Amino acid sequence: MRQVSLREFRTRGSKALGNVPQGETVLLAGQQGPAFFLVPVLGDVALEDRELRRAMARASLWQYARLAEQYPITDEEIDQEIDAVRTARLARQKNRQS
Fold first, then answer.
1. What pTM did the predictor assign?
2. Are residues 93 and 55 in the same domain?
């Protein structure tokens, strides 16, 4: 995987990618670290899109799993929150019907 600075990519555009072999993923990095991946699309675009979305979903789940570990909550607390939301929703529905 090649790395290109965001600044270089912004100023030179596609010329900044000139040395990258066809089909290779590029990491665009800014001053604060990695920012974006440029992923080549080869073959079936729909299949590539599904795979990319699947990878993004997995990354998001891992991020939220790590966040959840920082704020542990019991099953009882979860049930209480669900009951509170359901109660509020029912109250809104009754107000609309009135």
1. 0.44
2. yes
